[in-house]
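Appendix B, example 12.
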Amino acid sequence: MSFWGARRVLVTGGGGFLGRAILKGLRERGAGAVAAPRSAEVDLRDRAAIRRCLAGTKPDLVVHAAAVVGGIGANRAHPGRFFYENAVMGIDLIEEARRAGVAKLVCLGTICAYPKHTPVPFREEELWNGYPEETNAPYGLAKKMLLVQLQAYRAEYGFDGIFLLPVNLYGPHDNFDLETSHVIPAMIRRFEEAKAAGEAPVTLWGDGSPTREFLYVEDAAEGILAAAERYDGGEPVNLGSGEEIAVRDLAALVARETGYAGAIRWDPSKPNGQPRRRLDVSRAERLFGWRATTPLVEGLKRTVAWYRGSSLRAGS
């Protein structure tokens, strides 16, 4: 509490899915002053706007959670946008934070930065041993360049910037837009809508064989704030649950939690994405004492309940 009470914190992306959970964690910790401007107020693609924001908020600590994100379909449709906007937002924010004398910056990377065929479990040392999976490589590489920048700035300027690699997130307030959402919210929405339509069949991308790891959004926020408080190193750190599930098994689990009993079909003409994902999460526990605590089943129950409540509110 003493760490946070004396600090002025700026959170980019504070209105987003992960940003909401970070702000909740900061409130619970009694952070002294927190600024979380929306993109309409501060365009992070505009360096002058970043400069004005930093001058106005005077943060001691910046958490960079803003990003242009989406599932496989969105990454395939907008590779140029995903590369440019994620790169330029981070590069200019880090540079302006350094110039403004910000004491510490926490930068969030992505699991998509890992090579396509990284040995499981993914260890941080493997980050540079190959090219990312093609469907999301532009996004992953844009984020990975921020790690290079932070390490270079640490070496030349002594700038305290840390880089975290969250795995796929899910939870309340996620993006449920079928054009841009990730796998769990997409499945929840499709199963709920199919159930409302009388158990219509649902067709999912790929063949269901890839594996994924998922991290409940509030656990991710706890890990980010623990790192902000207790980690000052230059090496990247994974944030994940350390548990792996096949997409086919995930679909069955989400169907059960939504009560969907219709047919699930697979479309192998659509990309599977990276073959396997599971993180080695030992570095986070060793360096700043964090480990995920929310089981997948419990997190899914909360997410389904939130989606149903949100849909009812939208309908009314």
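The chain has a mean pLDDT of 94. Residues 42 and 49 are 6 Å apart (CA to CA).
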